[in-house]
Amino acid sequence: MAIDTEAIKKHIRGILVALGDDPDREGLKDTPERVAKMYQEVFEGMNYTNQEIAEMFDKTFTDEMDFETDSKDMVIVRDIDIFSYCEHHMALMYDMKVTVAYIPNGKVIGLSKIARIADMVSKRLQLQERIGTDIAEIMEMITGSEDVAVMIKGSHSCMTARGIKKPGAVTHTTTLRGKFKEDMALQMKLFM
Question: Quick one: 99 and 167 in the same domain?
Fold first, then answer.
């Protein structure tokens, strides 16, 4: 599904009118087009299912270098910066840091691919909890490992800039699958 930029322009213009402003005034006349272009970029992930994202980034060292690994050591990438938009208010979720961990099951994914997966998943109308679930699901598809963990912390402007207005509030979510769910020693390594 492609993003309909013409419809976005039309509706943004309507929102400007509904707010009581003149969409033809100097500062606003190009705003509908700018917003449509921005939405095309920041919501790019809405064009793809989790399966399609997995196919897009399904490059493992097994595939590229024709070897398999029997390593069972945890691979962890911390502090992947992302931002997203809350599906409830279309408000920015920002200062988000993602940690992704997995235990290889014969395949090792390139580290940059993990960051690309997190980035693409965040480019949807989202919930922070679903971002973690989506990343974990895609990592499982690519690596074949059920042992995946995703931790996310972030601020939500629907809570910091409006409503209750608590700018210091940070939301933490954790998605644990496979051994990460039950193995306390593994969880301790993850949370270090």
Answer: yes
- My answer on whether 33 and 107 are in the same domain is no
What are the tens digits of pLDDT across the range 155-182?
999 999 999 999 999 999 999 999 999 9
Residues 92 and 168 placed together within one structural domain of the fold: yes
User: First CA to last CA across the chain, in angstroms?
Assistant: 41
Global pTM exceeds 0.85: yes
For residue range 100-142, what is the model confidence (pLDDT) as tens digits? 999 999 899 999 999 999 999 999 999 999 999 999 999 999 9
Residues 157 and 115 reside in one and the same domain = yes
Residues designated catalytic: 86-89, 128, 156, 158
User: Whole domain around residue 25: which residue ranges?
Assistant: 5-42
Q: Half-sphere exposure (CA, 13 Å, Cβ side) for 117? A: 35
